[in-house]
Design goal:
The chain is an alpha/beta fold. The chain folds into 2 domains: about 190 residues, no CATH class; about 140 residues, Nutrient germinant receptor protein C, domain 3 (GMP Synthetase, Chain A, domain 3), CATH 3.30.300.210. About 35% of the residues lie in helices and about 30% in strands. Pfam families: Spore_GerAC, Spore_GerAC_N.
Length: about 375
């Protein structure tokens, strides 16, 4: 009897305490987007976007933007502006303006995010090419609300191997990992919000360059992180273009199965990375007659064109003395003693390294018709 009394008392107290801690949704300002940017004078601008749960409100999203010394300092000011209590535990998207990334010490601005145990470590981190305010104030018509739209755009392109998965957790690891440099998805606001590609940062987190969508896919292949099949549209310069308004030497391919292997060695005071990439290819578009080239010749043409693109990407990486691929992790694993000598300036060491890519293309399908 005493045991049953204690059980009933426990559930009664639990119900009382939980009900006391409840706050109605209309009394909360649940931030779903947090923006960090700099204005033209170098002042830190923090913005946040929250859904409105009041049935009488005409706007379903409220957005605030203000100048602050820190992200935490902005919380006090947001509380003074919003009718509800501001909470950051449900933030879905963290927008960072490219102006912020032009400074080496910008990462410390995010300190409160990592100290706050309620901040979602799975929020999507996105670089904005232009003012963050252009994106956070965007009100898409006939589309999901902006927080959901941005998250869906990023996640869809991650699944299709067009951009990278970047969260506060992965960004923190990349910032402190000496064997690679950070990379973040990048978008811009034109007529609509659109994904641009991937922002490349140096070891100090400073912005150095942007990869296009196709370059981003090539990078993902080198990182061996591709998920679904990739589509590339490539010209074949070795085929004569008959001129006119149509490009008759264009070819579109689906890369349905990709196996990426890399070997690491140290020789003649240099690191050497040898990639062997096998790709199974399906032809999905061909604007030139099939009898113009044999299948084995076509495989060689595709190999040559894709290899040229890989080499262009690697050249860009080495010229910027960065390592978004993470080859420093391979070097540390297989050539530890040599890597430790250059660990503090790995980007410079990688710039001097030999990175060779060899491709093996296997055409699986030429399509339903010839």
């Amino acid at each position: 009897m005493k045991r049953w009394f204690l059980v009933i008392l426990f559930f009664f107290l639990t119900a009382i305490l939980s009900s006391c801690g409840r706050i109605p949704l209309e009394d909360l300002a649940i931030s779903l987007i947090l923006g960090v940017d700099l204005d033209e004078d170098g002042n830190l601008i923090i913005s946040e976007s929250s859904p409105v749960f009041n049935q009488d409100a005409k706007k379903k999203i409220e957005t605030y933007e203000l100048e602050a010394k820190t992200i935490r300092d902005s919380r006090r000011n947001f509380d003074a502006l919003t009718p509800g209590a501001v909470t950051a535990g449900k933030i879905q998207v963290l927008l960072i303006g490219k102006r912020v990334l032009e400074h080496e010490d910008w990462f410390y601005v995010l300190d409160t995010i990592y100290r706050n145990p309620t901040f979602s470590v799975n929020s999507r981190v996105i670089v904005v090419d232009g003012p963050v305010s252009d994106v956070i104030n965007y009100e898409p018509e006939d589309k999901p609300q902006l927080p959901l739209l941005l998250k869906e755009v990023i996640d869809k392109n991650i699944d299709r191997s067009r951009t990278v998965f970047s969260t506060p957790q992965t960004l923190h690891r990349q910032m402190y990992e000496k064997g690679m440099t950070p990379l973040i998805s990048e978008l811009k606001k034109g007529q609509d919000v659109e994904l641009v590609g991937v922002s490349l940062l140096d070891q100090n987190g400073k912005y150095v360059d942007t990869l296009s969508m196709q370059e981003s896919s090539l990078l993902i292949i080198l990182k061996d992180k591709q998920k679904e099949e990739l589509t590339f549209s490539i010209p074949l310069p070795s085929l004569e273009d008959e001129g006119g308004i149509f490009n008759r030497n264009e070819l579109s391919i689906d890369l349905s199965r990709i196996i990426t292997k890399v070997k690491t060695k140290y020789h003649q005071d240099k690191f050497h990375f040898n990639y062997k990439i096998h790709m199974t290819v399906n032809i999905v578009e061909q604007l030139f007659p099939s009898d113009n080239v044999k299948e084995n010749e076509l495989e060689k043409m595709i190999e040559h064109e894709l290899k040229s693109r890989f080499e262009g990407l690697i050249k860009k990486i080495q010229e910027n003395k960065i390592d978004p691929i993470g080859l420093g992790i391979y070097a540390r694993a297989f050539q530890y003693d040599q890597y430790k000598k250059v660990e503090e300036h790995w980007g410079e060491a990688l710039a001097e390294a030999n990175i060779d890519v060899s491709l093996d293309i296997d055409i699986k399908s030429m399509g339903a018709i010839n």
